[in-house]
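Quick log. Single chain, no ligands specified.
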Amino acid sequence: MDSTERQAMGHLTSLGLGQVQYEPHGNIPPDFLIDGRIAVEVRRLNQNIVTATGKLHGIEKVHYSIVPWFNKELPKLRPGRDGQSWYVSLKWRRPLSDFKQLREPILRALREFKITDSGQPTCFQIHPNFELSLNPAGRAYEAFFCLSSISDLDAGGPIVSEAVRNVQLCMSEKEAKIEQYRSLHPEWWLVLVDTMFFGLTSAYWGEVRNNLLLHRDRYKWSKVIILGDNLPSAFELY
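-> predicted structure:
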């Protein structure tokens, strides 16, 4: 059971509706069963893009592959002449090829810059969808290059509309997953654990709910619940 499932189980148990079983049928839906009758599926609520094949791809996956690599490699490029350091800013959008293929071009650009070091801000277009900018730090750090900022151009958007869009994507994805198992239980719930909108309060989720209710007949969930750190316990979207 992962942390998302543990958080969901804690909430489901607190409802006092009966025994909560984890994976009652093994490694098939549902994730939980309440009182032998309410099937519950659990998923992280994250920000997604839809790939060409129709699958969801969490945008944070690119972030997790890029940032740790820079944090590991930049300190290896020790201070240059005159103790000057440079801030490194990253900007990317999708589609982005396998980041491993970009590592050597990035290191080559940084090494060449370190040798020439004109003292002027510089931008490298490593890939059509990946840009690296260098700006003087104004002080010396232990390393010549310091990761300063990242910009995922596919992230963001109006907060309520992005929440609505991603909730709907998660609802549809999970409905497809449970379709062949739906007859096992009379009632199905979906619990979404927020890993995307940490600052979204109940007032904002109220706007999300109002938008979702306009299209409720598209989905077969009996109940959709949001769990989040900023919410008192949970927020029922319907």
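Residues 3-55+157-236 form one domain.
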